[in-house]
Design goal:
Largest sheet of chain B: 5 strands, mixed
Strand order of the largest sheet of chain B: 4-3-2-5-6
Oligomer: heterodimer
CATH architecture of one domain in chain B: 2-Layer Sandwich
Number of strands of chain A: 5
CATH class of one domain in chain B: Alpha Beta
Order of helices and strands of chain A: HEEEHHHHEHEH
Helix content of chain A: 25-40%
Structural class of chain A: alpha/beta
Order of helices and strands of chain B: HEEEHEHEHEH
Radius of gyration of chain B: 35 Å
Radius of gyration of chain A: 26 Å
Largest sheet of chain A: 5 strands, mixed
Shape of chain A: elongated
Helix content of chain B: 25-40%
Distance between the termini of chain B: 74 Å
Strand order of the largest sheet of chain A: 1-5-4-2-3
Shape of chain B: rod-shaped
Chain lengths: 217, 186
């Protein structure tokens, strides 16, 4: 009986297709990846179920680090110029308006603002700077004054995004003095920056989401 | 495919004097290249941050000096949460008096289990008419920013419509301190 001939197949697989897929994915990830810029102020934000993405333009951001130091930053240079000029005329601080405009954040009491702006940008680090004083037990809450200036600068045009970015370990009194400064200037709406977290299974919000109800947060 | 046609001509025979050059295969082993590709892919997958920071909205009540302008909450629907040191949470229903402090004042934590504050909020929510329910959050001076955000988050997880962030009173602060000391002693 003649055995049927089984043709021997090569075990070599053509890798070209696989290689194509691999590099396609690779280029996708390279293009979509965004490296985080090294931040001058180290803040680890708490997480929340909020689904709204934090705005990244037209904002006034108050940062609260883990030692309770407060920093202020805003992205509108015109408003910053106005604030610097006002500070120079009302408080006679003699600060460099251009340096103030360029500064990524402000983190010094009014009395030290001039020397703060003379520090080169790259060596302004949150852990060595004094921050804006808010502790009322040690002196005035300068945040109130800052928020008043911001309010003045935005007069007429509506300020869209007042953001607060706080560290997990920051104590409540520091948060409270910031909120007080907001309240004193009639900023009653603000947003807290958090990292996203999934909605716990079986909770009421989860059930609502399953039903397709819109959230109002 | 990554193959080039190296066969010369349309298959016509060469003359007898022409030496046949040895044909080399143009196939390249792509396996190491694929390996490298996937290695880089995994690197970028791990380093990429897909999630952008989110923003949680908070609307503050306007400070009013006059008591008649302040919002009144029904006692039956009031639920007060106090935040203490080291992630401790205390809560009570209605009004806290010296008589009912021992039974009404309870402690909880941030877990989602039986002891968690979520459970207590849900219980209260189930037992109260929705429009009467007001949750008052009073963070103590020793609690952290994370605790405040967590408890506000708890409000949105449990779909609580009315809640307020209020300062802690001295008496409550002392009670929290006392209870903290007790829980440590136990």
């Amino acid at each position: 009986m003649a055995r049927p001939k089984i043709p021997r197949k090569s075990t070599n697989i053509d890798m070209t297709a696989m290689c194509d897929v691999a590099f396609l994915l690779l280029s996708f990830f390279i293009l979509t990846t965004k490296f985080k810029p090294a931040e001058a102020i180290a803040v680890v934000t708490p997480s929340s179920v909020a689904a709204k993405v934090a705005p990244d333009k037209d904002f006034v951001l108050v940062t609260l680090d883990k030692n309770g130091k407060v920093f202020l930053s805003m992205d509108d240079e015109q408003k910053k110029e106005y604030i610097a000029n006002t500070l120079n005329t009302t408080k006679n601080l003699g600060i460099d308006v251009n340096a103030f405009k360029k500064a990524a954040f402000i983190g010094a009491p009014f009395s030290q603002l001039k020397s703060f702006l003379q520090i080169p940008e790259e060596s302004r680090k949150g852990d060595v700077l004094p921050g804006i004083p808010t502790d009322t037990t040690k002196g005035a809450n300068e945040m109130i004054e800052w928020m008043r200036l911001v309010n003045e600068a935005y007069q007429g045009t509506k300020m869209k995004n007042l953001l607060l970015k706080g560290d997990n370990l920051a104590k409540y009194p520091a948060f409270k003095s910031i909120v007080d400064a907001f309240k004193k200037n009639d900023f009653l709406k603000f947003q807290m920056i958090t990292s996203p977290e999934s909605v716990p299974l079986g909770s009421e919000l989860w059930k609502n989401n399953q039903k397709g109800e819109k959230r109002d947060d | 495919m990554a193959e080039l046609d190296t066969s010369s001509g349309g298959g016509h025979k060469k003359g007898p004097g022409v030496k046949k050059s040895k044909k080399l295969s143009t196939r390249v082993d792509l396996t190491p290249m694929v390996d490298l590709g996937f290695l880089l892919i995994t690197f970028f997958i791990f380093t990429t941050t897909m999630s952008q920071p989110t923003a949680m909205r908070l609307i503050l009540p306007k400070d009013t000096e006059k008591p008649e302008d302040q919002n009144k909450a029904k006692e039956s629907g009031a639920f007060t949460i106090l935040l203490g040191k080291d992630n401790k949470v205390f809560y009570y229903e209605g009004i806290l008096t010296t008589e009912n402090a021992s039974t009404n004042f309870k402690s909880a934590n941030f877990s989602s289990g039986e002891e968690g504050i979520r459970n207590a909020i849900l219980k209260k929510k189930a037992n109260t008419i929705e429009k009467n329910l007001v949750i008052v959050i009073k963070p103590g001076n020793d609690c952290t920013y994370k605790n405040v955000v967590d408890i506000l988050d708890e409000m949105s997880v449990n779909v609580i419509k009315r809640y307020a962030l209020v300062d802690i009173s001295d008496i409550e602060g002392q009670l929290v301190k006392k209870s903290e000391a007790q829980t440590i002693a136990q």
